[in-house]
């Protein structure tokens, strides 16, 4: 992947889904205490092994390190980072990026680090975590070389007459799964088209579903990438899923849930990311983390009142403050008006920031209350393997399961509103006719 391409396919949320994978469920505590013995180049591994086989400039490593450090652990003491990056310049950027953030890792580059043909660290079946944001829809991958490199537990995707894989998405997906140890988890970004592609891709996908290790699928909106408007999907595998979840997959359609940064960029705010995490927590049965988030909202809002009450109170405060600002500016001499307005704008902005938090709290609490998971039309649904394979044709597209959110009733009577619009239109037409008549008379008087 070229440096330009690496930048183009670097999403704004690169690594921000780390919490989805690094969080443990209450049934999976053993996974976090386990120490493993590895051979070959992995002999120095400490507690947990994380591999990014398409590491680019190291965004996944940095975000993971931040998450682990924030949790009160030292990333370098609890994680061993391994990366593969074909482009040597990008690999150097990765090492520099990690060093700046106080991280160390083993990064391979050059031809030996071409993941399609090499397992450069001999980590197949040995990773606790795999996280990646690989290039999508790569073509011209040599099928024989890829097959010889193994790590394809479900077989090869389609091969063309030139003995090439013309779309390598399912090579990546197979690798991410194959690298995991018996308790491992994977989280990666993939083109949206991969969730329901046909042919041998579908066969591989069915085999994946049958393992019971597909855990969570999240659809992401357009414009989450710096220079591309591609929609994508976040995939999560978990080989250590508790028995109660083996037959289930959580689907989240987050395409309508984001914050607009500007005309070409969207992102998840910190609170939105926490809300998405909360859905996963409830699916995994981790109600205590959900309750802790509810408490965090109350603390941030500085009130124990209901979120809806807080939201409405803030809206009224903002409305009152705007009215107060208008009156104050009008009562101020002209030369001081700009300063007065600026002071009020700052106060209103602070209230709006708090209102945004309140709205996110309402968004979450209205759906899940004190911590009970529920399928929400248009947002999330849990499906079993039989439904996925037999009824949905092995599709892993969240939209195929969650459906469409019901339209909110705005309280406006349609027929009455149409009558009002019709009267408004007639009035405008009459006004237009009168105006045209006046213009015509004026033109005649001018002799035109």
UniProtKB/TrEMBL annotation:
Extent of the signal sequence: none
Record-linked PANTHER family: TYPE I RESTRICTION ENZYME HINDI METHYLASE SUBUNIT, TYPE I RESTRICTION ENZYME HINDVIIP M PROTEIN-RELATED
Protein name per Swiss-Prot or TrEMBL: N-6 DNA methylase
GO molecular function terms listed in the Swiss-Prot or TrEMBL record: DNA binding; N-methyltransferase activity
The keyword Cell inner membrane appears for this protein: no
Organism: Candidatus Weimeria bifida
A GO BP entry: methylation
Gene3D superfamilies attached to this UniProt entry: Vaccinia Virus protein VP39
């Amino acid at each position: 992947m070229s440096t330009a391409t690496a930048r183009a396919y670097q999403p704004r949320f690169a690594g921000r889904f780390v919490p989805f994978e690094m969080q443990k469920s209450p049934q999976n505590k053993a996974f976090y205490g386990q120490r493993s013995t590895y051979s070959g180049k992995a002999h120095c591994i400490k507690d947990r092994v994380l591999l990014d086989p398409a590491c680019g400039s190291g965004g996944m490593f940095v975000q993971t390190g931040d998450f682990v450090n924030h949790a009160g652990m030292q990333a370098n003491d609890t994680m061993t980072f391994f990366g593969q990056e074909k482009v040597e310049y990008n690999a150097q950027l990765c090492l520099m990026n990690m060093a700046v953030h106080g991280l160390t890792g083993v990064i391979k580059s050059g031809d030996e680090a071409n993941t399609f043909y090499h397992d450069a660290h001999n980590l197949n079946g040995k990773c606790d975590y795999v996280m990646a944001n690989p290039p999508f829809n790569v073509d011209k991958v040599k099928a024989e070389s890829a097959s010889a490199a193994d790590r394809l537990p479900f077989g090869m995707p389609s091969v063309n007459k030139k003995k090439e894989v013309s779309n390598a998405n399912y090579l990546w997906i197979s690798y991410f799964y194959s690298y995991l140890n018996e308790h491992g988890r994977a989280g990666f970004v993939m083109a949206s088209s991969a969730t329901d592609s046909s042919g041998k891709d579908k066969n591989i996908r069915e085999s994946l579903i049958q393992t019971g290790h597909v855990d969570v699928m999240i659809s992401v909106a357009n414009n989450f990438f710096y220079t591309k408007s591609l929609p994508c999907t976040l995939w999560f595998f978990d080989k250590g899923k508790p028995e109660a979840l083996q037959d289930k997959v959580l689907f989240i359609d987050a395409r309508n849930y984001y914050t607009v940064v500007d005309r070409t960029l969207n992102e998840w705010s910190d609170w939105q990311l926490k809300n998405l995490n909360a859905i996963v927590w409830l699916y995994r049965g981790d109600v205590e983390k959900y309750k802790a988030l509810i408490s965090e909202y109350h603390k941030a809002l500085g009130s124990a009142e209901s979120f809806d009450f807080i939201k409405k109170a803030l809206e009224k405060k903002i409305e009152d403050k705007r009215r107060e600002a208008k009156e104050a500016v009008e009562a101020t001499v002209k030369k001081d008006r700009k300063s007065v307005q600026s002071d009020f704008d700052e106060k209103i902005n602070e209230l709006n920031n708090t209102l945004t938090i309140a709205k996110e709290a309402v968004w979450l609490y209205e759906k899940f209350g004190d911590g009970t998971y529920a399928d929400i039309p248009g947002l999330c649904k849990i499906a079993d393997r039989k439904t996925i394979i037999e009824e949905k044709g092995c599709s892993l597209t969240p939209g195929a399961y969650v459906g469409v959110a019901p339209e909110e009733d705005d309280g406006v009577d349609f027929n009455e509103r149409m009558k009002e619009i019709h009267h408004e239109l007639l009035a405008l037409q009459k006004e237009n006719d009168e105006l045209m008549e006046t213009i015509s008379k004026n033109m005649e008087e001018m002799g035109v």
